[in-house]
Amino acid sequence: MNIDKNVEDDGVIFMSIKDEEQNKDSAKEGAGDAKSCGKSDEDLLILAIESSCDESAAAVVKNGREVLSNIISSQIALHTVYGGVVPEIASRKHVEKMNGCIRAALSEAKVTLDDIDAVAVTYGPGLVGALLVGVSEAKAIAFATGKPLIGVHHIEGHISANFIENKDLEPPFVCLVVSGGHSHLVVVKDYGVYEIIGQTRDDAAGEAFDKVARAIGLGYPGGPKIDKAAKEGNPDAFSFPQAKIGDAEYDFSFSGLKSSVLNIINQAKMQGQELSQVDVAASFQKAVVEVLVGHAIKACKEYGYDKLAIASGVASNSGLRELMEKECAANNIKFYRPSPVLCTDNAAMIGAAAYYEYKKGVRFGLDMNAVPNLPLGDRERRFHAGK
Amino acid sequence: MKILGIDTSGLVGAVAIADGDLLLSQFSIQYKTTHSEILMPMLDDVCKKIHLDLKSIDAIAVAKGPGSFTGLRIGSATAKGLALALDKPIIPVPTVDGIAYNLYGVEKIICPMMDARRNQVYTGLYTFVAGTPEGKSLEREFEMQIIHEQFATSVEDIAARINEIGKPVVLLGDGVPVYRDQLDKLLKVPYSIAPMHQNRQNAAALVSLAMQYAAEGRMVSADEFAPDYLRLSQAEREAKEKDSAGKAANTGEDVKSGARAGDSSREEPLSEAEREKKRREARKTPGIVRVREMTAEDIEDAALLEKTNLGKEAWTQKQLIDALTRDDTIYLVAVKAGRIVGLCGVQNISGEGEVTNVSVARDCRGEGIGYKMVKQLLERGAGLGIKDYTLEVRAANEPAIHLYERLGFKSEGVRPGFYDEPKDDAVIYWKRNNL
């Protein structure tokens, strides 16, 4: 995956993510044709929209696995001064940026709305004000063009990001989904069929990363900053607790770990000691990663799956990737992961998930609403058309 | 010229379609604010009933703001999506102008008021001026004149501006019932209130005004259009307040009272029913309860209150003094007839506010003291940089759980067997303001 970046006047970063292989293919088929995207009658094109947090994104995806365009307008720089995403600012920016993203996605895919077979959008979970922008746009476009509308669960999108670069990956497999807002261990039984076998009891893993990063003065966003600092630190400098939940062996708990890091920092402060930022980062990261990898490998072995995928924000953490690769190799498990850029919020993954929903005949009505706490697996069916 | 109009800026959700000077259809609902769920089905219905080919529309008019932030975005994003798909321009209509246009031909002062909360209204001042079309003697044509363009201000300020003009005024908009008593005291000119069919956002009036704008070429492209909120987001406002707090500190001004919890949902106006409920609740509360910061003189009484309520788990005087002297805490007491009847406190732990105490005297429970007190605590917490709040409560303590849920806390977990005497689970509650 290649990224074209452009910083706009208001500090928003406009990115176009290109699949090199895809570009090669379309070059072969002859760019400039009327059907330069290489769409045949059986092909299915989905325009996908995502706005659940601080990235406005649009993409055109062919047959669920080929990304014709993937546009992300990232506001991260705007929120850095506030130490986290400010929902109202994020929602306002989505209104300003979404049309531009959609237009860019269509033009880069060399298609028009007429070529599109369905419009897909993230309708939860996420920030309600932010979600509503994408949902309102998608509904308006689907209505004005008469195309079917498909609502997608944000986390199912993240899991489906694995389908884009791993053409051989098919369910069933185990997927570890870890981000700022989620920590789930999921068995993907079939396309769109999920069983959650483990989740966090308190903080999400990414949330713990953000809090610890703030406490040791690394700032926002915590995940990438801790990952970077950890590379220079000693992971065994501190021994942090790894919580075990007695009655649910695949569940996670990160709040105790977070508190114990904060305690060490406070103690050092009170005693006037200087703490090594990189050592704290490395030891904290090690504690998180060991729990995540341990649970995931154990689930594969006990449930009898030989494929393991990771998804969402924390999946781009290099410490997690390294240990996961090592442990998978040692246990004869095939390890799948999306490129780091597909681990961030993007619309291509929404298009991938929507494709399999479309194939199953799922269609949403125009009364679709944003559902900020939409549960994974047990999905909201009340907006389905013809319910 | 065929124009589709959308207004979801307030409690009314409405669409209208006009062709030239013919209003083909309008659909308006003022019932709960679920614009996201009703707007598109409403539009779909309207289009079907008049066999409208969407492609025949020339422009999309939308209430551009001010209004409920979320409502504005639903209308705007919908208009932008339609305009993008149909390749048509957008006609942005200032919300307050649209409301004023309800009263075509009225030569009094017209003052729409939308409840903007924080004791403010979105308002403006308008009137209609008559002219005679060429070659006619008796026909009149009215033009809406803007005396003061739409802005956000206090009720006192807009009343003073009306008094200054000194002419009779017609009031309309959802802010009028909210501030009616206040307005009655403030206004020194005869006033009337528009009847229900003319006193709210009206998509037909919006489209009618949009026809004029279109003739004047006041249109923008779908991508360019963004709503005009007339207000910064809360976080930006707070950053500004903090900025001026640094300056004000030198002059000794109290700026802390301006700080509020960072909850975007508080921007949403309450529905009429919710307001009425609040008024009823307020009437029920006997005696006047004041909430203020705890001081050293309160410690003895506060400790006694803790002890009476919580027994062994109560905080001691020493713990309370310690809490009072830290700079990462806020402690509030509720005072009724000179007696301390409530206590609550929060500690800031790297951006997360841990609510450490909430106590209300037994004989004063059920009067809304806990709600009043904790609500203030949450509002003041932003001044410490708190974004999210957490607390633990006994699973069996239903009144407390009910209180926290009313304040927007959500249960996120349980610590089994956390409390002793009697043994009970602790329920972990969170109020996350970025969700």
Walk me through the structure.
The complex is a heterodimer of chains A (387) and B (435). By secondary structure, chain A is α/β, with parallel strands linked by helices. Chain A has 2 domains: 2-166 and 344-375, Nucleotidyltransferase, domain 5 (2-Layer Sandwich); 173-338, ATPase, nucleotide binding domain (Nucleotidyltransferase, domain 5, 2-Layer Sandwich), CATH 3.30.420. Chain A has helices at 20-28, 76-80, 87-108, 128-145, 154-165, 205-215, 222-230, 255-270, 277-303, 318-330, 340-343, 348-359, and strands spanning 2-7, 13-18, 45-50, 55-62, 66-74, 118-124, 149-153, 173-178, 183-190, 193-199, 307-311, 334-336. In chain A, helix 5 (154-165) packs across helix 12 (348-359), helix 6 (205-215) packs parallel to helix 8 and helix 7 (222-230) crosses helix 9. The radius of gyration of chain A is 21 Å and the shape is globular. The two termini of chain A are 40 Å apart. Chain B is α/β, with parallel strands linked by helices. Chain B folds into 2 domains: 2-215, ATPase, nucleotide binding domain (Nucleotidyltransferase, domain 5); 284-431, Gcn5-related N-acetyltransferase (GNAT) (Aminopeptidase, 3-Layer(aba) Sandwich). In chain B, 34% of the residues lie in helices and 31% in strands. Chain B is built from 12 helices and 17 strands. Chain B has helices spanning 35-49, 69-86, 95-100, 155-165, 175-186, 203-215, 234-251, 272-284, 299-310, 317-325, 369-381, 398-406, and strands at residues 2-7, 13-19, 22-29, 59-65, 90-94, 109-117, 120-131, 141-154, 169-172, 191-193, 289-293, 329-336, 339-349, 352-360, 388-394, 410-419, 424-431. In chain B, the strands form 3 sheets. Chain B has a 7-stranded mixed beta sheet, sandwiched between helices. In chain B, helix 2 (69-86) links the parallel strand 4 and strand 5 (90-94). In chain B, helix 1 (35-49) packs across helix 2 and helix 4 (155-165) packs across helix 5. Residues 248-269 and 282-286 of chain B have low confidence and may be disordered. Classes of the chains: A alpha/beta (387), B alpha/beta (435). The interface between A and B is large, with 50 and 48 residues.
